[in-house]
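Worked example (supplementary).
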Amino acid sequence: MSAKRGLIRSGTTVDQMVRAIGDRIVTGVLRPGEKLDEVSLAARFEVSRTPVREALGQLSAMGLVERRPNRGAIVAVVTQEHLTSMFESMAELEGICARLCAERMTGSERRALETEHQASARLVRLGAEEDYEYFNTEFHSRLYRGAHSTHIQELTATTRSRLAPFRRAQFRLAGRLAKSWQEHDAIVTAILRGDGAAAGKAARDHVSIVSEASAVFAVGDQPKAATMTPVTSG
Amino acid sequence: MSAKRGLIRSGTTVDQMVRAIGDRIVTGVLRPGEKLDEVSLAARFEVSRTPVREALGQLSAMGLVERRPNRGAIVAVVTQEHLTSMFESMAELEGICARLCAERMTGSERRALETEHQASARLVRLGAEEDYEYFNTEFHSRLYRGAHSTHIQELTATTRSRLAPFRRAQFRLAGRLAKSWQEHDAIVTAILRGDGAAAGKAARDHVSIVSEASAVFAVGDQPKAATMTPVTSG
DNA sequence: CGAGAGGCAATTGCATGCACTTTTTGCCTT
DNA sequence: AAGGCAAAAAGTGCATGCAATTGCCTCTCG
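After joint prediction of all chains, the assembly is encoded as:
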C-alpha cells in the first residue's frame, strides 16, 4: 500500500495534500473564491476526507484558504486593501533582507549574486520572459537567504507565496523585463558596496513598482470558473 | 451536547482546541520540547482524537508545535539561532509599525496612545509589574493597529505570540520596568511629532533591549522535565 | 403572485476503528 | 554481563460512519 501514492511525493498524506492544494492555489489553478469541496478533493486525490480536512485546516492557518464553519472552505479571497497591505509588507520585508544582505552576505554569496545577476542580463536582451522569471525567483531567494535570518526568511517566503496568485503576469507588461533588471542592478550594486540603507531602499522601490504592475491584475471578483484541472502531479 | 464544552469558548471544536493548546503554549503551561500526546489531549479536553489532530496540524502550520511524522508532536523548540532571528525580526517589524504609525495614525489614535502611555507611568512608580505588563501589551497592540496595514499586523502578531514563551519574565529583571517606560516614551514622542525614522529606530532599539533581557532565559536545550524555570508566571 | 415555514438533500463536523510505524522490553546469544 | 534481536505495546495515520448544520426547494397561506 506504499505504492499507492507513489503518484504524489513523499511525506504523510496530509503533507502531500497541503502541498498539492497549496500549489494549485499559488499557481492559480484554483482561483480566489473558488469553493473547495471536501469530497471532490478527496475523490480527486484518492484519499479519504480526513487528510483533506486536515490539509484545509493547515492551509487556512497559512492564510491560503478561508474556512466558514459548517459552510465549507474557499480559496482565500483578499480584499484590495489587504492585497495592498501585503505588497507593502513585502516591500518592507525585502527592504530589510536587502539591508541585511549588504551587512552580512559572505564573499561567496556576494560573488554568486553578482554572477547570476549578470547572467540574467542576457535573458532580458532575448526577451525570454519564462526563463527570466526563473532567475527572478532565484534572485529574490538569494536575497532572503543572504539576510542570514531564518525567521525573516520564513515571513518573507510565506508572504511571497500568498502574493503569488496576484503577481503572475507581471513580466508580460511592456518593458517590465528590462526595468526589473535595472532595479535588481541597483539592489546588487548597493549590496556589493555594503550600503545597507541604499540596498534597502532599492529593494523597497522594486517591490513597490511590482505592486503597481500587479495592481492591473488585482482582482477580488475572479470568475468562479469550474476549470479544476486533473491533478496529475508527480 | 452544546453544554458539554461550555468550559471552552465558542466556535468549532477544532478552533477551541487550537486556542486551548495554543494558549497553553504561549503562556508557558506547556513548555518547549514537551510531548503532546494525542490521546492525553483528547482525554483532557473530552473530545476525540480527530479535532486534536487537526488542531496540532494548524498549530504546526503556525509554528507553535513541531510534528515529526509517526513520532508525535512536541511544543516547538527553537534553537538559540532561530530565537535570535525571531527577536531580530520582531525588532524590524515593530520598527516598521512605529514608522508607519508616525506617518498614518489618526488624531484620535495619537491621543489615545499618549493618554494610555501617560497613565501607565503611575504603574511604574508603584512597581506594579502585572498591571504594567497588561499596559505594555496594549501599547504594542496600538502600535500594530496604528500602522494601518492588516498584513503587517498579522506578521507582527504571530511573531509576537511565538516569542511569548521566551519573554515572559522580563519585567522581573531589576529596573526593567522603568527602562521599558522610557523606551516607550521615546517611541511615543517620535510618533507624535511625526518623525517616522526616529520612531522606527526607537522601536527597534526597544525590542533589541527586550531581546537581551530575555536572552537570560533563552534556552535551546530545555530539560524535558518540569525543572528549569525562572519563568514562573502562570 | 409573493412571502414564510417546513422538510429534504447535500455537506460539514466529529467519533470510532483498523492498519502501520515506532519504541520499548525482555530474552537469547556471545 | 553486555549487546543485539524479536515480539509486544504504545501511539500515530487514515478511512469510514453517524450526527448535525446549512441551503434549497416546495408547499401553503395571505
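Two points are worth noting when inspecting this output. The mean pLDDT of chain B is 85. Residues 12-14, 47-51, 69-72 of chain B lie near DNA strand C (CB under 10 Å from a C1').
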